[in-house]
Amino acid sequence: MGAEIENKEIIFLLADDHSIVRQGIEIILHDIVPDAKVFHTSSLRQIVELVESKEVDMAIIDAHFPDGNSLHILSEMKRINPDIKILIFSGLEEDLYVLKFIKAGANGFLSKLSEEEEIREAISNFVKRGEYFSTTSRELLVQLVYNPNLINPLNSLTKRELEIAEMYAEGLGNLEIANKLDIKQNTVSTIKKNIFNKLKIENLVELIDIIKTHHNI
Fold it and tell me: Which residues, given as ranges, of the chain have pLDDT below 70?
């Protein structure tokens, strides 16, 4: 992509609800591509609109906005421009979320918790190669080959196990679950044990965390 940087004006979109984040990224972009054209938005709804109207080549966007999360619009961005490159720049835990975003169409994931030098280098790599994967992301992508449930560990549960896991996450106990599903209490205990084994967890706090993470984004 090196030659393209020299010969073509690249159109960037920076989407983040904090203007200081966008301004900081724009400074880095202009260091790498002095003639870059950069559009800003703080709204999730505007992202797709701008990708379409401004013919955006590269987008650096947050995962979360006050009006929703960007995971669900990546496919729409790619539909409008199949060649668009998308870097997620987020404060979300990389090891929990990166695979979901890559599967949805992102070309990279950069943590906002990274050091300034690492952010600069990552954005530079993204601009030049059209992708950026940290060591964490690469390791997870390799693991995914051997364990497809890594993207969503809840996929390993049966329908009944998932139903009961959700009830635990809502705060119901064994007896309440047994009454609600009209099954024996010791059956609920056995299913709970299976859920914990499959998800490799030891307590309800961990279960609630997994349910929140993989059901809400």
Answer: 1-8, 145, 147-150, 215-217
DSSP 183: -
| pLDDT tens digits, one per residue of 186-203 | 999 999 999 998 888 888
What pLDDT was estimated at residue 149? 66
State the pLDDT at residue 3.
41
Coil vs helix vs strand at 40: strand
Q: Which of 56, 96, 95, 94 is nearest to 76 (CA)?
A: 56
In angstroms, what CA-CA distances link 31 with 34, 58, 63, 179?
A: 6, 16, 25, 64
Q: Phi then psi for 56, rounded to 5 degrees?
A: -65, 135
In the chain, which residue ranges form alpha helices assigned H by DSSP?
2-7, 19-32, 44-53, 74-80, 94-104, 116-129, 135-146, 159-169, 174-181, 185-199, 204-215
The span from the CA of 137 to the CA of 109, in Å, is 8
SS3 of residue 113 by DSSP: coil
Q: Are 217 and 69 in contact (CB under 8 A)?
A: yes
Q: What is the b/e burial string over 85-96, where b = at least 16 CB atoms within 10 angstroms of the residue's CB?
A: bbbbbbebebee
Give me the phi and psi of 16, to 5 degrees please. Answer: -160, 145
Burial class (CB in 10 A: 0-12, 13-18, 19+), 32: middle
Distance CA 18, CA 202 (A): 38
Check residue 82 and report its DSSP letter: T
217: enclosing H helix or E strand: none
